[in-house]
Amino acid sequence: MKEFTKHHDGRGITVHPDYRGLGIASEFVKTRRQMINEQNIPMSCAWMTSYGSQKAAEKDNWETMFEIAPDELGEKCGLVFKDSPKSFKLMLVRKSSVRS
């Protein structure tokens, strides 16, 4: 990603379990897209570590740049993940992919 001199990034998207299924993650990804378009930033990226955030980002045409299985990451870091999706995804959205 050397061609991007400016970008937004984040640790990911998290929605409290009591509020999942209400479209909050979808609004988060839409807001990230709106921010980069309004601020003339070429891209935004975030780790999507749940099915809900991955689905929301995919629905908004985010690209998967890197993917790793939780078991593989856990082995490298000495962690055990519970109830995780089959993979964690580093996803990005580009300013040029404006949705109507």
From TrEMBL:
Protein known as: N-acetyltransferase domain-containing protein
Highest taxon listed in the record's lineage: Eukaryota
InterPro entries attached to this UniProt entry: Acyl_CoA_acyltransferase
